[in-house]
Design goal:
Shape: globular
Strand content: 25-35%
Structural class: alpha+beta
Number of domains: 2
Helix content: 10-25%
CATH topology of the largest domain: FAD/NAD(P)-binding domain
CATH architecture of the largest domain: 3-Layer(bba) Sandwich
Radius of gyration: 23 Å
Bound molecules: flavin-adenine dinucleotide, FE2/S2 (inorganic) cluster
Distance between the termini: 40 Å
Number of strands: 24
CATH superfamily of the largest domain: FAD/NAD(P)-binding domain
Oligomer: single chain
CATH class of the largest domain: Alpha Beta
Largest sheet: 9 strands, mixed
Length: about 500
């Protein structure tokens, strides 16, 4: 299979930055340079705060933000019916309003800063999947009760296989996330903000001030720290009980311009399919289709998942051309479908977190940036209670327990045998788990037959990683840490690589 790629990758010098080179002091240290972290830095720098952003990758917006599909939706993907059941009608109405405010903010920033990011207002459509029209009916009832604007239409405007009524929601949005964030990084610097890449944070000490320790031993002292790392890094173990890591898959196919109405589409299935288009060169559109979610580290059939997405797409869009991109990435679900945004729970003075994107991280990250900036600036924010990470929703207990029983079950991997007996059984370019005595090894064989052995034990909280053949990564089934094929940390919450195993020296040396 060809390597994965998302359509958003842009080469822009503003994405590059130097690593942190000395101990420094700022008003605010933001950890993570995705949409959540960069928007936070922008808002705080604009308000006159001195801000530094630290990211472990070599460029900004190279985490999940680079592999998004960038729907800007105010319609909650877990559906208003679910949010209203778990948190009540007022919370569900506020959730809609908060995501609308996030789309407004992206539009306002792109206008104010003259960022050419293809921002556009579009309709959203919820259409029935294989599970039939009941879910649609429930959502209509709930949205009517909440006073939210929608219209029932006879069918979703797909060229083929568009069965049954659908719901249309006005005033959603779409944009090019990397064009937006590359330019936003440049604006942050113009406002006095500082960005360091290739700087991994390994420890955050809360307090007044807080101290942020990095992998090179350099520290940042700051009045406040914002953890915008996607998965919640170093914000207390309880956060890992509240946030569950899922993989989601996407493909991009060329279609004639105008063949598909520019809009956001998603169906009622679980996991749901999601669809949008984006203009590409030659006056054509790229049709982007996503879905096939599963818990991170708990599936190894990635090629089949992309193939199923393609088959689903061709049934509805028969004129679609070849698949130009296929890729996957991680989203973080919460028991009530709403982000976890605000002061980190427990005694973490001045440490704030933006996590639990629930597949709506473009808007969650943006409204999270506004919320956390308001808290740091001492302003009131109407959504602070809705998203408070310390919240407790008794009606979400069942989901919370199911997720944590699933996590606990992953630790039984310690007891099972290896997937193969030795590296001899692993084809080049692939990896597998090998048991050696009491330990489990993550063994990768490179294309030239070189064998790389690492401990399969995740440095976060000891889960056993699993090979992901689609992305050539080792994925932890417990809280979603991901590592490159030779063990380098790609995504937290782990803060270090898989431990390499020394190869025994050849006999006679
Ligand atoms: C296939 C796919 C489709 C999606 N579609 C949509 C969609 O249509 N609409 C939508 O709203 N959302 C969507 N999402 C979700 C959305 O993309 C993410 O929620 C969002 O990009 C997360 O942004 P973020 O800034 O929180 O995290 P990220 O973009 O992941 O940024 C976090 C950053 O933190 C850095 N970091 C992590 N740990 C450390 C550390 N210890 N030290 C220093 N740096 C660290 C990482 O390097 C990374 O750059 C999708 C996601 C995927 C994977
Ligand atoms: S991510 Fe927590 S144990 Fe691996």
């Amino acid at each position: 299979m060809t390597p994965t790629s998302s359509p958003w990758s842009v080469e822009n010098p503003a994405r590059a930055a130097a690593p942190l080179a000395g101990d420094t002091r700022y008003d605010v240290c933001v950890v993570g340079a995705g949409i959540a972290g960069l928007t936070t830095a922008y808002l705080l720098a604009d308000a006159g705060k001195s801000v530094v952003v630290l990211d472990s990758k070599s460029k900004v917006a190279a985490g999940e933000t680079e592999v998004t599909t960038a729907h800007l939706a105010w319609v909650i993907d877990d559906r208003f019916t679910r949010v209203a059941q778990v948190r009540g009608d007022e919370a569900a109405r506020l959730a809609a309003e908060s995501h609308q405010s996030a789309i407004d903010l992206i539009e306002a920033i792109s206008k104010r800063e003259r960022i050419a990011c293809e921002f556009k207002r579009v309709d959203g459509y919820l259409f029935p999947g294989a599970d039939g029209p009941d879910a649609l009916r429930d959502e209509m009832v709930t949205m009517t009760r909440l006073g939210l604007i929608f219209e029932r239409v006879d069918r979703v405007p797909f060229p083929a296989n568009a069965s049954g009524p659908a719901l249309r929601f006005p005033d959603n949005g779409q944009f090019h996330p990397l064009k937006y964030l590359s330019d936003l990084a440049a604006v942050i610097r113009m406002r006095g903000g500082v960005i360091h890449t290739e700087t991994r944070v390994v420890d955050i000490r809360s307090g007044a001030p807080c101290t942020v320790h990095t992998d090179t031993g350099r520290t940042v002292t700051a009045g406040a720290v914002v953890v915008a790392t996607g998965s919640p890094f170093d914000t207390g173990t309880t956060m890992h009980f509240k946030v569950a890591a899922y993989m989601t898959y996407a493909i991009g196919l060329e279609v004639p311009a105008g063949y598909v109405k520019h809009a956001l589409y998603w169906d009622t299935e679980d996991p749901y399919h999601y669809v949008r288009t984006t203009p590409i060169e030659g006056g054509k559109d790229l049709l982007i289709v996503g879905g096939e979610d599963h818990k991170t580290g708990q599936a190894s059939d990635q090629p089949e998942r992309w193939a199923r997405l393609e088959a689903w797409t061709r049934e509805r869009f028969p004129a679609a051309g070849a698949v130009r991109h296929h890729w996957s990435g991680e989203v973080f679900e919460t028991p009530d479908g709403l982000g976890m945004i605000g002061l980190a729970p427990g005694w973490r003075q001045n440490v704030y977190v933006i996590t639990g994107d629930s597949g709506m991280g473009m808007t969650h990250g943006t409204l999270g940036a506004r919320l956390v900036s308001d808290l740091i600036l001492g302003r009131t924010n109407p959504y602070a209670g809705l998203y408070a990470p310390s919240r407790w929703a008794p009606s979400a207990l069942k989901t919370l327990l199911e997720e944590n029983v699933n996590i606990a079950a992953q630790y039984t991997d310690w007891l099972t045998g290896g997937e193969v007996k030795s590296a001899d059984e692993i084809p080049p370019g692939q990896g597998a788990i090998v048991r050696r005595g009491l330990t489990k090894l993550a063994v990768y064989k490179d294309d030239r037959g070189g064998v790389h052995e690492m401990s399969a034990v995740c440095p976060h909280l000891g889960g056993i990683v699993q090979w992901n053949p689609g992305e050539q990564t080792w994925d932890c089934p417990c809280h979603g840490s991901r590592f490159g094929c030779t063990g380098e940390m790609r995504h937290g919450p782990a803060a270090s690589d898989l431990t390499p195993i020394e190869q025994p020296a050849p006999a006679g040396t």
